[in-house]
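Record 1 of the preview.
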Amino acid sequence: MAERINAVDSPNATCMLHGNIGGSMDILEVKDPRSEYVVEDEAVFNRKFTKLYKEWHDKTRFDSLIGDPYNKCYNNIVQLGYRAVPYIITKLKEDPSLIFVALIRITGEDPIKEENRGIVRKMAEDWINWWEKKNSATGCSGA
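->
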């Protein structure tokens, strides 16, 4: 028997659960209707993010329209939602790039200091610092 319930962490996501009376519940799938992706577990999500990031990176390496709303690769990363944030932060730590433009759309925040605007490495550092400060305040572990 399966039933749909709203996920606790996202009012826009639904979970498909399977369980029996007096038994445990297993999550069969998690789906955010704003995304085309069904995420079964962290390993699947990691592979999807890595694939989308590589596509974005390869297609925008020499492109000035990094956050172009018509860029499918960019939009696919944004559609992954907040769950992609630690993955993007990890990519910024490895190789500072303009992928942080997706963070602005996903989080609705922009922690970039005025004096750092236009300096990709510094803007990436501002996002990394934002993430570390946010996680130290909540006691959560980061990327």
